[in-house]
Amino acid sequence: MLVHANKVRSWQWKPFKNSARSDNLSLLHWKRCDDTSSDYPFAKYSVKREILMYTDEQYNGVLQQPGWTRANTDHLIELANKFDLRFVVMQDRWDKHIHGTRSVEDLKDRYYSIQYRLDKLRDSESEKPKRPLYDADHERLRKEQLEKLYSRTREEVEEEEYLIEELRKIEIRRKEREKKQQDLQRLIKAADQLTETGPSNKKKKASATKKKEEETRSWRIQDKPLNAGVSLRSAKTKQALQVGLKKSKLVEQILTQLEVGVSPMPTEEITGQFNELRNDILFLLELKIAQETLQFDIQALKHRKETLVGDQTPAATEDTENEDDLFADTDIMGLNLDEALVTAGLTSSCSRKRRAASEIEKVTALLKKQRKNSKG
After folding, report:
1. How far apart are the first and last CA of the chain?
2. Bridge partners of residue 336, in order along the sequence
3. What is the tens place of the pLDDT at every residue in 163-218?
4. Which of the residues in the chain have pLDDT under 50?
5. Is 348 exposed, middle or buried (0-12, 13-18, 19+ CB in 10 A)?
6. Least crowded by CB within 10 Å, which of 52, 166, 281, 343?
7. 163: which residues sit within 8 A by CB, 6+ positions away?
8. What secondary structure letter does DSSP report for 274?
9. Which helix (H) or strand (E) holds 30?
């Protein structure tokens, strides 16, 4: 059984009058009992337009027009009052036998010219009358063009569509040519600037560009909002790293070794620290690869020195061994980075080249020693 929270409003069959009507007609309709208004509620929307009337003096002074008599003008104003400026209906009810044939544009032109002149007489102080003039010639031309548009054949429509498409292609080609010309002008301007600036300025610009690139590394996870709409905070911990798949797998492997896991509890603090940890791991891997590159360069220089100088003193040998010990310690926070890099397949090409170069340098040094001994 349904129970209504509010009481049902009661209605009555009551009479009403419409103030917009002039015949004082009384009708009946359903109405709420608490509604005490007597007038029809939609009477306010029945707005009658103001039509200015003229006197004999005004007509003889400013309203006379060739082709229109006083009787024609009076009949026009009478129809305007009767049909509330519905000019299509007015043209249909126009008495052609007495006043001749008139088009809708003729009726509009005559009516609005009368209202414009009367408005100008009554408001002589204002520079611009309230009612605009009606351009009958423009309206006739518009209807004529519209009639031509609707009376086109299928072949004419297809031809016009073809011409429009060709015009669009021409515009696209023109824009492409302008863009190429602008690019060419920019290149010429840039070449002129490079010619004017010296080598010192070039070095400064190159160093500044390199520094900017280092500051904004592409692989770093930026603390920026996600896409618009509803999202979970855990999505921030799953942002893809801007590196290759192998490095991403390596980061996950190191996180597992640290017993952090790849999906921590996504609180606000943990989420920020987790992303910072991933950034630090990536930075550590970048340092490791840079270290291998430097170690390769050191080994190559060392073997070149051995080749040029000959036998080394024991002290120099100890120094190089100490230098090798500096780069041998890759066990950081319990993480063997060399082993992890090899497992992930990310061993630097420099480390492989370093081993190959060291072997080649050793063989070359032994051959030179044998040649010296044979000559001696």
Report:
1. 122
2. 331
3. 999 999 999 999 988 888 888 888 788 777 777 665 555 555 566 555 554 444 44
4. 1, 213-219, 312-318, 320-323, 325-328, 333, 348
5. middle
6. 166
7. none
8. H
9. strand 26-32
